[in-house]
């Protein structure tokens, strides 16, 4: 028995830091599927047995994440399905929208094109698209915590908000992803979610609930967020402020990643060395750079999903931020 027994996975994870927890995804295939979903997006053949195996193979080969979407509170099927294609890369994010009448049309799409510039397969989507995980069959926290957020956002932005299937990290529910930037958030209240989306429409990056940008690894996510927090703490325009010149989504870019133990860490204890997670160099568009080292810290075992058995929990956290200019 643990102190977390009987808790939801979101409650059990309340002490685990959010930065570095965004699932790494650079290509998205979002398919409208009204009504109930199975536990697995493709494994349960929700889209039909005749295309599921082939679509699963193609998304895996192209490194694209298949995602089901539906409008909050509206599950009727009109005969036409919205399909969103998106690439979440620094300086090269894009999103396109098209409609299909038959799910077999998904097999006509060259998903490898999601690894490059916008291919023109659909109409460009210029406003942020908001995905809120509401995948109750995957974890009850996503449904209980995600659906109210999706409903609140949809009331303000009816054409830009979708409930979506599992995005990874339901213990950080409610979970929200903004396309095409890939900005990923968790543990947002309805009011905080509204502020995040409002800022996203100005291409800004609020730090409240920010888990990381999906194009980056956990170490890279932690490094970027550490620099944003550093600049904000020194009064420089940054996320969460309303200044016209605050840092936008592409103001910072992770330009280099190192796996080797830096000199400062190598000289430390064996315990510290064992927890070393990596290092990343973050560049500002004005030329400044910072080296951020990160370490992995362990937490008491607890359930990663509601009703699951406890298992070890870890998080990547910043260790040192060093200016390189």
UniProtKB/TrEMBL annotation:
Protein name: Sucrase
Pfam family, one: Suc_Fer-like
SUPFAM superfamilies: Thioredoxin-like
InterPro entries: Aim32/Apd1-like (IPR009737), Thioredoxin-like_sf (IPR036249)
Highest taxon, organism lineage: Bacteria
Organism: Nocardia terpenica
